[in-house]
Amino acid sequence: MNRSEFLDQDFNLWILLAQTRALLFSAGETELSKWNISLMQGWTIFTIKAIGERATPAEIARWLGREPHTVSSLLSRMVSQGLVKKEKSLDKKNLVRVRLTDKGERLYHEAIGMKPMHDIMSVLSREDRQQLKALLEKLRGSAQKSLGRHYKLPYEALK
Hints:
- The protein is mainly alpha-helical.
- It has a single domain (3-123), classed as Orthogonal Bundle (Arc Repressor Mutant, subunit A), CATH 1.10.10.
- 67% of the residues lie in helices and 6% in strands.
- It is built from 8 helices and 2 strands; from the N terminus they run ααααββαααα.
- It has a two-stranded antiparallel sheet with strand order 1-2.
- A hairpin with a 7-residue loop joins β1 and β2.
């Protein structure tokens, strides 16, 4: 295989991944619009729930793969919507903890069974899922190394 064919294959895979991501995001946005929240707000709620009592804006940013200032703005909007609360840490005065409000908790429990997500993923067997997870982790690792970043996923912290 010559260099041009190899690069074309990489480009085609990149586009396929981008199209798949866009479609998955669109399905998530459509589903979460029932609760008047964005996909990023939904991810933030799931992330706060996964982190638990240790949730801080900086830790949430690491999990979401977003810049801290972006997450700070997102959390401010979510505070206005009554989804989360920011509280100063009792042990560290300059540390802010983030927790779900009762409304945020209800939304978490209602949205966790997002039907479109499960319907879309249902085409994958258990083996397919394990293989896809391994391949995506390999790509994520390569991208993180290339960019000098490290992002966490909820299941990594729960091991």
